[in-house]
Amino acid sequence: MSAILIAVAARIAAALKIANGNSEHETAMRLLKVSEEAGEASADLTAKLDAVARRLGTTGLPCTSTAGQTEAQ
């Protein structure tokens, strides 16, 4: 599967190079766009993992917050 994705990405990059050129500015804009998309994917994955943790009743991390705890706890 990854070999197919690499080939598709190479074809897309070649088409962009023909349409938009290959200047330093264009390369920088593409890099920023890829970084933005990676950030969105990371945020989505984090949200999904948090939802799973809430369903399971655990976050897997030690609780350091005392919010909502009473003196007896």
Q: Shape from CA axes?
A: elongated
| First-last Cα distance | 52 Å
Please provide the count of β strands.
Answer: 0
Topology order in helix (H) and strand (E) letters: HH
Q: What's the Cα radius of gyration? A: 22 Å
Largest sheet: none
- Which ranges are low-confidence, i.e. pLDDT below 50, for 5 or more consecutive residues? none
Count of DSSP H/I helices: 2
Mean model confidence by pLDDT: 82
List the helices and strands and how they pair.
Elements lengths: L1 H19 L3 H33 L17
Characterise the protein shown here.
The mean pLDDT is 82. This protein has helices at 2-20, 24-56. The chain contains two helices and no strands. The protein has a domain at 7-43. It starts with a helix and ends in a 17-residue tail after the last helix. Helices cover 71% and strands 0% of the residues. By secondary structure, it is mostly helical.
